[in-house]
Amino acid sequence: MASQDLLLQALRSFAVAMGSSYDINEMAYELSFQITEALGVAGAGVSIVDSEGRLRFVTATDERIVQIEQAQEEAQQGPCV
């Protein structure tokens, strides 16, 4: 079950990090981990669109999600696109 408090805390942490110096990989991993807990899901990942419009995998909470994110990147299709 989703936790509104945990979700707001995760988004607040993300907003604070965006206003300061941060490591993008560390921040993306932390955000995916917090969102996983807040939404009560098995895992989460982060992908971004590069300057050429291609989806690029960044990080995931576990190996299952890494495989899903990498498949989306290879196919350039999926929920993240």
What does this structure look like?
This protein has 81 residues and is α+β, with helices and mostly antiparallel strands. Strands 1-2 form a two-stranded antiparallel sheet. Helix 1 packs antiparallel against helix 2. The radius of gyration is 13 Å and the shape is globular. The mean pLDDT is 85.
List keywords for this structure.
single chain, 81 residues, alpha+beta, two-stranded antiparallel sheet
Summary of the model, kept short:
The chain is an alpha+beta fold and 81 residues long. 54% of the residues lie in helices and 14% in strands.
Query: Which strands sit side by side, in order, in the main sheet?
Result: 1-2
Number of strands: 2
Biggest pleated-sheet summary: 2 strands, antiparallel
Q: Given the structure, what is the number of helices? A: 3
Overall mean confidence score, pLDDT: 85
Task: Tell me the fraction of residues in β-strands, as a range.
Answer: 5-15%
CA distance, first residue to last residue: 26 Å
